[in-house]
Amino acid sequence: MEGDIGGEVPCSSFAVDSALRVGTAGLIWGSCTGSLEATKLGLTGITRASFAKSAGRYGIQWGLFATVLSFTRCGLQRYRGQHDWVNPVVAGAVAGTVIGASARNWKQAAGVSGLVCALYYAAEDAT
């Protein structure tokens, strides 16, 4: 989402694009970490294959985070009519809350996500 998105592309398109891209990265990450963990434990055969499900878990979690983040950021930008640091920070906090809802400390997840999104915006705006 570079610059002003005005009314040219629906927010759902950004959300689907983000889900596919980041969800695929999550699948790749899960494949690598699952295989690494199985190797560290010295597993072989069927027991090693049980670590393959971590790929799907990471893919779904990352895809969900990206979908909520993109949809919220786009919606806020359209609603407020401004392209500033508030949109990614609020969107990051919302996405962190959604993902961290199952965790014990969802407030920490929301805060960290908002902070990371603020840093991302600062880096994006600097270029």
Structure description:
With 127 residues, the protein is mainly alpha-helical. The protein has one domain (12-126). Helix content is 79%, strand content 0%. Helix 3 (53-80) runs antiparallel to helix 4 (86-100) and helix 4 runs antiparallel to helix 5. The chain is elongated and about 55 Å long.
Task: Please describe the structure with a list of short key phrases separated by commas or semicolons.
5 helices, elongated, mainly alpha, 127 residues
At a glance:
It contains 5 helices and no strands. The chain is mostly helical and 127 residues long.
Oligomeric description of these chains: single chain
Low-confidence stretches: none
Q: How many DSSP-defined strands?
A: 0
Task: Provide the helix percentage.
Answer: over 70%
In angstroms, what separates the terminal alpha carbons? 14 Å
Strand content: under 5%
Alpha-carbon Rg, integer:
17 Å
Largest sheet, if any?
none
Query: Helix/strand-derived class?
Result: mainly alpha
Global geometry: elongated
Order of helices and strands: HHHHH
Number of helices: 5
> What is the overall pLDDT average?
82
Question: What is the count of structural domains?
Answer: 1
GO biological process, one term: protein insertion into mitochondrial inner membrane
GO molecular function, one term: mitochondrion targeting sequence binding
InterPro entries: TIM22
Keywords: Membrane, Transmembrane, Transmembrane helix
